[in-house]
């Protein structure tokens, strides 16, 4: 899949340029959200290219919120520095749970401790606006498991929490 990244980024940049031209006078953009997957897998140069194209094709509002979804296991100090330099000012970290059994059931690549460490690294790198994505309604998740996840998340003091109910889809391992 990684071999498809350059072609994907090229297509995305071209489509933004096309939409920017079609909109006529620059359309104002207040928020940019890079998500729906794991854009933290992109090399920082590609993220920078996408955001530079967005700022050229559209009128990016001063103080626009620029969010990137990330997997806790992808985050490191160098990547976080690069994302900030590229213009990302809000990080959404897909923690899902602070319970290791839940993370194993979800086949996540990180542990609860690694998720908390990723949050702290992002904060230390200079991200003030951090969101944690959490899931409830997981198989064998008790109310006390969910409460512990919420307590751990709140203890980190994120700016925002996104709470999602697990949706089982046919053909997936949890189905």
Compact overview of the structure:
With 175 residues, the protein is α/β, with parallel strands linked by helices. The protein has six helices and five strands. Helix 1 (5-22) packs parallel to helix 2 and helix 2 (44-57) packs parallel to helix 3.
Written description of the protein model:
By secondary structure, the chain is an alpha/beta fold. Helix content is 43%, strand content 23%. The chain contains six helices and five strands; from the N terminus they run αβαβαβααβαβ. Strands 1-2-3-4-5 form a five-stranded parallel beta sheet.
Features:
alpha/beta, 6 helices, single chain, 175 residues, 5-stranded parallel β-sheet, 5 strands
The secondary-structure element order is HEHEHEHHEHE
Order of strands across the main sheet: 1-2-3-4-5
Radius of gyration: 18 Å
Low-confidence stretches: none
- Give the assembly state of these chains: single chain
Number of continuous helical runs: 6
Helix content: 40-55%
Q: Averaging pLDDT over every residue, what do you get? A: 92
> What's the main sheet like?
5 strands, parallel
Count of extended strands: 5
Structural class: alpha/beta
What shape does the CA trace take?
Answer: globular
Residue fraction in strands = 15-25%
What distance separates the N and C termini?
24 Å
List strands and helices in order, with pairings.
Blueprint: H1 5-22, E1 28-34, H2 44-57, E2 59-70, H3 77-86, E3 90-96, H4 100-105, H5 112-125, E4 129-136, H6 143-156, E5 160-165
Parallel strand pairs: 1-2, 2-3, 3-4, 4-5
Helix pairs in contact: 1-2, 2-3
